[in-house]
């Protein structure tokens, strides 16, 4: 029995609709339903870790991590995203953002770590 033109177009159309429906369901099912933890940086997901301070040098990272370790708080660090390089109309670089680093701790330790770092950082840098 020969297939008509309508039947030849109907089967691929049904297949495309089924794939589109599966993609929509998958996107809905894997959308984040949990709220972001306090102190989290928008656009930069550190998983279970949250930043408690942002500093400029590796020496400051070492000092802060040692202070946290002395209080029984595990920590690590991650590079903070630098802002855009500003360029004037002639193509000259006006400002280049410096590299900074986040001190990261588990979300359950964030409040305790922030309190511990306030004394170390003083007025120079407040915990994030």
From TrEMBL:
Highest taxon of the lineage: Bacteria
Keyword Membrane on entry: yes
Spans traversing the lipid bilayer: 6-26
Keyword check for Transmembrane: yes
Keywords, ordered alphabetically: Membrane, Transmembrane, Transmembrane helix
Name of the protein: DUF2007 domain-containing protein
Organism phylogeny: Bacteria, Bacillati, Actinomycetota, Actinomycetes, Frankiales
């Amino acid at each position: 029995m020969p297939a008509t033109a309508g039947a030849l177009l109907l089967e691929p159309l049904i297949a495309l609709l089924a794939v589109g429906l599966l993609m929509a369901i998958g996107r809905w099912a894997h959308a984040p339903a949990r709220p972001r933890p306090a102190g989290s940086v928008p656009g930069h997901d550190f998983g279970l870790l949250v930043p408690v301070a942002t500093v400029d040098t590796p020496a400051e990272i070492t000092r802060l991590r040692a202070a946290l370790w002395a209080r029984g708080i595990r920590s690590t660090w991650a590079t903070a995203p630098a802002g855009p390089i500003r360029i004037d109309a002639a193509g000259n670089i006006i400002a280049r953002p410096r590299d900074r680093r986040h001190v990261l701790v588990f979300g359950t330790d964030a409040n305790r770590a922030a309190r511990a770092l306030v004394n170390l950082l003083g007025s120079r840098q407040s915990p994030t």
